[in-house]
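Exam revision sheet. Question 4 asks you to relate a sequence to its structure. Input first:
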Amino acid sequence: MRRVLRILARLVLGFVVLVLAVLLLAFVGIDYRPYLLAPYFQSTSDRLVEGTKTNWVSTGVLRAGFARVRLTPEVNASVDDPEHGKFRLLPLAGFGARKGKPATGTHDDLWVKAVSLEVAGRRAVFVASDALIVPREVSELAVGRLQRELGLPREALYFGATHSHSSIGGWGEGFVPEAFAGEFHPGIREWFASRLVAAVTEAISNAAPASLACGSFAAPDFVRNRLVGERGRVDPEFSVVLVRRDDGKTAVIGAYAAHATVLGARNLQFSGDWPGEWERAVEAKTGAMGVFFAGGVGSHSPAPGADGFEGTRRMGEALAERTAALLPKLVAKPDIAFATVGLEVALPEIHLRVQDERRLRPALAANLLPVKGSTFLQAVRFGDALWISTPCDFSGELALPLKEHFAPRGRRLTVTSFNGDYIGYIIPGKYYHLDGYEPRTMSFFGPTVPDYFEELVRRMGESVAGEPR
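Answer key, structure tokens:
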């Protein structure tokens, strides 16, 4: 009996030692080294310097083209037919609480809308989708086709999403993506990418002489800080771009920092949430095509005043009314300053935390979180406006000091999210040690990334903010 007990004790001890060894090997501490000293910063900074040497601001007469392509899939089809957007089952993306339930139908249609701007032979196409994000796999499919078919470089494609949490899912493969976007459906990637390509192609094909104007209005009553409430700041600015062609056709582009989460996890119908309501209301009030980009939504929630579809209607229509009131005050000009710049951004190691100061080793975390070692930033200058796209839920609190930096130079800065990749939330570093979804679960790359991205966004903006050559 004693021998048996000794053997059992040794087995238990061996198991405990094995578990401790696994724990020691599986987890590491947080990397607090300053980004300025990191190799990923140096390589990215060198690329930015080289890229801006050949970049310049030019002026000329604007040509603009518009397009809209339906993104709404057909669900409950008899057979999957991704080429025509037909699926037997397809989940909605946005809430893990839905547990991958399939969509039951459509409340309001989803769209991809594109506005092509061309000045002096240089082009930027703004492509907004009524979607949670534009996944990397989708944007890469679309970019590859557009490069082959139209010769468009990546920096000419300004992707964005409304961030509706009631749009198409099924595009993510792996534990974390499928937790938020439902079971992987390979065909949805091809369908989504084909919609992007169709919208860009049509917008470029119908380009015609046009004029452009930029403006904004404050809407603090519809946005709140979702991290710390009244103790934090919010970005209340609703950015507006008016593009009016000489033939009378018009597009109105808007960007705002409130999350598109008026509809909760219980909703199982496709919908554009409040941005979709804004787009439709703008179109009804002005006759223009409404195009919406999620701004710095990373720490901002909506404040619609009501729940469900009544809340989306109230918020969308109220903001559309203020947009329509602003448009007559804007003076559109045909000759504008114009520039584009794109940047491949190297990223630090993955920080998938299990405790405040402990994270999975990056090699293990990569099996759960299928992100790459680099991503993309982009800046476009048109007139006095600077628009910079980011691959994340970029925080409106981070956008505020950047806007304040450029305002004395007469430049209107708008930072948008979801530009064809997704690397989680980028929120102020002071919130990194808070418990909760944004600081703990969704801050994928550690505590130094906010400062790193702030510097890159500022430098990219400065590279196109100067006077034309």
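Marking note for examiners. The CA atoms of residues 437 and 443 lie 9 Å apart.
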